[in-house]
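Batch 3, record 17
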Amino acid sequence: GEDVEQSLFLSVREGDSSVINCTYTDSSSTYLYWYKQEPGAGLQLLTYIFSNMDMKQDQRLTVLLNKKDKHLSLRIADTQTGDSAIYFCAERFTGFQKLVFGTGTRLLVSP
Amino acid sequence: ETGVTQTPRHLVMGMTNKKSLKCEQHLGHNAMYWYKQSAKKPLELMFVYSLEERVENNSVPSRFSPECPNSSHLFLHLHTLQPEDSALYLCASSQTGFEAFFGQGTRLTVV
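Prediction for the assembled complex:
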Protein backbone atom coordinates (compact mmCIF):
# COMPACT_ATOMS: atom_id res chain seq x y z
CA GLY A 1 0.00 0.00 0.00
CA GLU A 2 0.89 3.67 -0.10
CA ASP A 3 -0.13 4.72 3.39
CA VAL A 4 2.18 7.10 5.16
CA GLU A 5 1.32 7.12 8.85
CA GLN A 6 1.66 9.85 11.44
CA SER A 7 0.26 10.40 14.88
CA LEU A 8 -2.60 12.88 14.70
CA PHE A 9 -1.83 15.24 17.52
CA LEU A 10 1.06 16.56 19.62
CA SER A 11 0.94 19.15 22.37
CA VAL A 12 4.07 20.77 23.85
CA ARG A 13 5.00 23.80 25.94
CA GLU A 14 6.86 26.74 24.47
CA GLY A 15 10.61 26.20 24.73
CA ASP A 16 10.37 22.40 24.77
CA SER A 17 11.46 20.17 21.91
CA SER A 18 8.84 18.60 19.66
CA VAL A 19 9.30 15.28 17.89
CA ILE A 20 6.93 14.35 15.10
CA ASN A 21 7.11 10.81 13.77
CA CYS A 22 6.25 9.24 10.45
CA THR A 23 6.37 5.76 8.97
CA TYR A 24 6.44 5.34 5.22
CA THR A 25 6.01 2.47 2.80
CA ASP A 26 8.38 2.57 -0.16
CA SER A 27 11.84 1.39 0.84
CA SER A 28 13.21 2.71 -2.44
CA SER A 29 11.93 6.27 -1.96
CA THR A 30 14.59 8.75 -2.99
CA TYR A 31 13.51 11.80 -1.03
CA LEU A 32 11.46 12.27 2.09
CA TYR A 33 10.00 15.64 3.00
CA TRP A 34 8.49 17.58 5.84
CA TYR A 35 5.84 20.19 5.07
CA LYS A 36 4.10 22.66 7.37
CA GLN A 37 0.54 23.90 6.93
CA GLU A 38 -0.75 26.89 8.85
CA PRO A 39 -4.50 27.55 9.15
CA GLY A 40 -6.12 28.55 5.87
CA ALA A 41 -2.89 28.18 3.90
CA GLY A 42 -1.25 25.75 1.53
CA LEU A 43 1.69 23.53 2.38
CA GLN A 44 5.12 25.01 2.89
CA LEU A 45 8.23 22.88 2.46
CA LEU A 46 10.27 22.85 5.67
CA THR A 47 13.07 20.45 4.91
CA TYR A 48 13.88 17.22 3.15
CA ILE A 49 16.31 14.37 3.41
CA PHE A 50 17.84 12.22 0.75
CA SER A 51 17.47 8.51 1.33
CA ASN A 52 21.21 7.86 1.67
CA MET A 53 21.40 10.14 4.71
CA ASP A 54 20.63 9.28 8.33
CA MET A 55 20.32 12.79 9.66
CA LYS A 56 19.98 16.34 8.49
CA GLN A 57 20.08 19.47 10.62
CA ASP A 58 18.71 22.80 9.53
CA GLN A 59 18.71 25.47 12.27
CA ARG A 60 16.05 24.37 14.81
CA LEU A 61 15.02 21.38 12.70
CA THR A 62 16.60 17.93 12.84
CA VAL A 63 15.44 15.15 10.56
CA LEU A 64 16.28 11.54 11.41
CA LEU A 65 15.84 8.71 8.94
CA ASN A 66 15.82 5.02 9.83
CA LYS A 67 15.61 3.21 6.52
CA LYS A 68 15.53 -0.23 8.08
CA ASP A 69 12.35 0.59 9.97
CA LYS A 70 11.07 3.07 7.32
CA HIS A 71 10.78 5.65 10.04
CA LEU A 72 11.24 9.39 9.68
CA SER A 73 11.15 11.97 12.43
CA LEU A 74 11.24 15.75 12.69
CA ARG A 75 12.59 17.36 15.84
CA ILE A 76 11.91 21.03 16.44
CA ALA A 77 14.16 22.53 19.10
CA ASP A 78 12.97 25.41 21.32
CA THR A 79 9.42 25.15 19.98
CA GLN A 80 7.60 28.48 19.65
CA THR A 81 3.90 29.29 19.50
CA GLY A 82 4.40 30.20 15.84
CA ASP A 83 5.30 26.57 15.21
CA SER A 84 1.69 25.56 15.89
CA ALA A 85 0.49 24.04 12.61
CA ILE A 86 -0.11 20.73 10.89
CA TYR A 87 3.05 18.90 9.85
CA PHE A 88 3.04 16.45 6.95
CA CYS A 89 5.70 14.00 5.98
CA ALA A 90 5.82 12.91 2.35
CA GLU A 91 7.66 10.36 0.27
CA ARG A 92 8.50 10.54 -3.37
CA PHE A 93 7.91 7.20 -5.05
CA THR A 94 10.79 5.98 -7.17
CA GLY A 95 10.30 6.44 -10.88
CA PHE A 96 7.15 8.48 -10.46
CA GLN A 97 6.23 12.09 -10.36
CA LYS A 98 4.21 11.08 -7.32
CA LEU A 99 4.45 12.59 -3.88
CA VAL A 100 2.39 10.79 -1.22
CA PHE A 101 1.62 12.55 2.02
CA GLY A 102 1.07 11.32 5.52
CA THR A 103 -2.05 11.92 7.52
CA GLY A 104 -0.58 15.02 9.17
CA THR A 105 0.26 15.78 12.81
CA ARG A 106 -1.36 18.78 14.44
CA LEU A 107 1.20 20.46 16.71
CA LEU A 108 -0.16 22.72 19.43
CA VAL A 109 2.34 24.85 21.32
CA SER A 110 1.12 26.42 24.54
CA PRO A 111 2.78 29.38 26.28
CA GLU B 1 4.71 33.44 -1.90
CA THR B 2 5.64 30.05 -3.31
CA GLY B 3 5.40 30.87 -7.01
CA VAL B 4 2.22 28.81 -7.36
CA THR B 5 -1.00 30.81 -7.59
CA GLN B 6 -4.50 29.40 -7.31
CA THR B 7 -7.74 31.16 -8.12
CA PRO B 8 -10.28 31.59 -6.79
CA ARG B 9 -9.36 31.29 -3.11
CA HIS B 10 -12.95 30.53 -2.16
CA LEU B 11 -15.79 29.09 -4.24
CA VAL B 12 -19.37 28.24 -3.38
CA MET B 13 -21.27 26.34 -6.02
CA GLY B 14 -24.54 24.50 -6.38
CA MET B 15 -24.69 20.87 -7.34
CA THR B 16 -25.82 21.68 -10.87
CA ASN B 17 -23.19 24.35 -11.54
CA LYS B 18 -20.08 24.12 -13.68
CA LYS B 19 -17.00 25.89 -12.46
CA SER B 20 -13.23 25.71 -12.93
CA LEU B 21 -10.29 26.04 -10.59
CA LYS B 22 -7.12 27.57 -11.97
CA CYS B 23 -3.50 27.07 -11.01
CA GLU B 24 -0.50 28.89 -12.42
CA GLN B 25 3.18 28.38 -11.66
CA HIS B 26 6.07 30.67 -12.53
CA LEU B 27 8.85 28.35 -11.42
CA GLY B 28 9.65 26.62 -14.70
CA HIS B 29 8.57 23.26 -13.28
CA ASN B 30 7.61 20.36 -15.51
CA ALA B 31 5.07 18.60 -13.28
CA MET B 32 1.82 19.82 -11.73
CA TYR B 33 -0.55 18.18 -9.26
CA TRP B 34 -4.04 18.45 -7.86
CA TYR B 35 -4.60 17.38 -4.26
CA LYS B 36 -7.82 17.27 -2.26
CA GLN B 37 -7.69 18.01 1.46
CA SER B 38 -10.70 17.24 3.62
CA ALA B 39 -11.34 16.32 7.21
CA LYS B 40 -11.89 12.66 6.32
CA LYS B 41 -8.73 12.14 4.23
CA PRO B 42 -6.13 14.77 4.92
CA LEU B 43 -4.31 14.94 1.61
CA GLU B 44 -5.36 12.87 -1.39
CA LEU B 45 -3.49 12.96 -4.66
CA MET B 46 -6.00 13.41 -7.49
CA PHE B 47 -4.05 14.05 -10.68
CA VAL B 48 -0.45 14.37 -11.80
CA TYR B 49 0.67 15.95 -15.04
CA SER B 50 4.23 15.58 -16.24
CA LEU B 51 5.30 17.51 -19.32
CA GLU B 52 1.62 18.32 -19.89
CA GLU B 53 0.60 14.66 -20.03
CA ARG B 54 -1.49 13.04 -17.37
CA VAL B 55 0.57 10.35 -15.66
CA GLU B 56 -1.56 9.62 -12.64
CA ASN B 57 -5.27 9.55 -11.98
CA ASN B 58 -6.15 8.18 -8.59
CA SER B 59 -9.63 6.85 -9.34
CA VAL B 60 -11.14 10.30 -9.23
CA PRO B 61 -14.85 10.58 -10.24
CA SER B 62 -15.47 11.91 -13.72
CA ARG B 63 -17.22 14.99 -12.31
CA PHE B 64 -13.65 16.26 -11.84
CA SER B 65 -11.91 16.91 -15.13
CA PRO B 66 -8.33 18.20 -15.23
CA GLU B 67 -6.75 20.13 -18.05
CA CYS B 68 -3.10 21.09 -18.53
CA PRO B 69 -2.80 23.28 -21.64
CA ASN B 70 0.87 24.08 -21.00
CA SER B 71 3.51 23.51 -18.36
CA SER B 72 2.58 26.67 -16.46
CA HIS B 73 -1.17 26.21 -16.16
CA LEU B 74 -3.42 23.59 -14.68
CA PHE B 75 -7.20 23.61 -14.43
CA LEU B 76 -9.71 21.50 -12.59
CA HIS B 77 -13.15 21.59 -14.22
CA LEU B 78 -16.03 20.80 -11.89
CA HIS B 79 -19.57 19.77 -12.78
CA THR B 80 -22.49 18.20 -10.93
CA LEU B 81 -20.53 17.98 -7.70
CA GLN B 82 -21.82 16.51 -4.46
CA PRO B 83 -21.72 18.09 -0.98
CA GLU B 84 -19.03 15.57 0.03
CA ASP B 85 -16.76 17.15 -2.59
CA SER B 86 -16.49 20.22 -0.36
CA ALA B 87 -12.81 20.49 0.57
CA LEU B 88 -9.63 22.47 0.12
CA TYR B 89 -8.18 21.81 -3.35
CA LEU B 90 -4.45 22.29 -3.52
CA CYS B 91 -2.33 22.66 -6.60
CA ALA B 92 1.40 21.97 -6.57
CA SER B 93 4.25 21.95 -9.03
CA SER B 94 7.71 20.42 -9.06
CA GLN B 95 10.68 19.74 -11.22
CA THR B 96 11.22 16.04 -11.86
CA GLY B 97 12.51 14.34 -8.74
CA PHE B 98 12.43 17.41 -6.55
CA GLU B 99 10.17 18.85 -3.89
CA ALA B 100 6.70 20.17 -4.64
CA PHE B 101 5.68 23.77 -4.12
CA PHE B 102 2.07 24.38 -3.19
CA GLY B 103 -0.44 27.09 -3.88
CA GLN B 104 -2.65 28.54 -1.15
CA GLY B 105 -5.57 26.36 -2.18
CA THR B 106 -9.17 26.91 -3.20
CA ARG B 107 -11.73 26.35 -0.46
CA LEU B 108 -14.70 24.76 -2.26
CA THR B 109 -18.16 24.50 -0.74
CA VAL B 110 -20.84 22.58 -2.60
CA VAL B 111 -24.39 23.45 -1.55
